[in-house]
Amino acid sequence: MLEIILLIFLARKIKAKVEPKGYKAGKWQAYLVLSWIGAEIFGMLISLLLFRSDTMIALISGYLCAGGVALFVFNRADALPDINEKNNDWLDNLGND
């Protein structure tokens, strides 16, 4: 239950990051949630299969992998260029005198 609340909170945070830049928030929210779930399963499976760890250790490693992927998605969202801003590149304005 806490994980769902955390994902809702993170989805709202990523929406606040990408919407002002002109991107669709739903795409980035889905990207965040699906990558979180995938990384959590991947981390748990690696922990269980390779290290033959306990269930609690597998859960912790799954959450650590999911947190790392969430950081990656947030860094990607921060690095997005603003598509609302008009590009004033000199090459684009060449010949428009």
Structure in a nutshell:
Keywords: Membrane, Transmembrane, Transmembrane helix. This protein is mostly helical and 97 residues long.
Structure description:
- Keywords: Membrane, Transmembrane, Transmembrane helix.
- The chain crosses the membrane at residues 32-51, 56-74.
- By secondary structure, the protein is mostly helical.
- It has a domain at 24-78.
- 69% of the residues lie in helices and 0% in strands.
- The chain has three helices and no strands.
- Helix 2 packs antiparallel against helix 3 (55-78).
- The radius of gyration is 19 Å and the shape is elongated.
Overview features:
transmembrane helix; transmembrane; 97 residues; membrane; mainly alpha
